Amino acid sequence: HVQLVESGGGSVQAGGSLRLSCAASGFTYTRNCMGWIRQAPGMEREAVAAIYTGLGRAHYAASGLGRFTISKYNAKTLVYLQMDNLKPEDTAMYSCATRRCSPSTIGTWGRGGGYTFGEQGTQVTVS
């Protein structure tokens, strides 16, 4: 079955950096989009970034554009999210997620259904 394991969250001051990792198993890694979706208390779920693991095409939400970089390491079915210049509004629970997609549909990341989420998420707190 699909399994996603997140790591790398923590607490930083504004302007700091964190790198999140997501280790994936149980599906055809190179035919999916993988990425991150976050949710702050009292707020709706929000897309952060995604990558089409087959070709490496990436998509970013406007909130992280220019500050976040998503990358993959296919040999170990890992996806990373490097977050720089963090802001207090980035504070949220970050969940790794995956769903079937294509390079032409990656722009819909965060919308619709069909996602499998990591079991625990990882908390990011920026003060």
What is the element layout, followed by pairings?
Elements: E1 3-7, E2 10-12, E3 18-25, E4 32-39, E5 46-52, E6 58-60, E7 68-73, E8 78-83, E9 92-100, E10 116-117, E11 122-126
Parallel strand pairs: 2-11
Antiparallel strand pairs: 1-3, 3-8, 4-5, 4-9, 5-6, 7-8, 9-10, 9-11
Radius of gyration: 13 Å
Can you count the beta strands? 11
Structural class: mainly beta
As a percent range, the share of strand residues is over 45%
The geometry reads as globular
Q: How many angstroms does the end-to-end distance come to? A: 37 Å
The level of helicity is under 10%
Summarize the helix and strand pattern as letters. EEEEEEEEEEE
Give a description of the structure:
- By secondary structure, this protein is mostly beta strands.
- 0% of the residues lie in helices and 49% in strands.
- It has no helices and eleven strands.
- Strands 2, 4, 5, 6, 9, 10 and 11 form a seven-stranded mixed beta sheet that branches. Strands 1-3-8-7 form a four-stranded antiparallel beta sheet, with no helix packed on it.
- The model has no long low-confidence stretch (mean pLDDT 91).
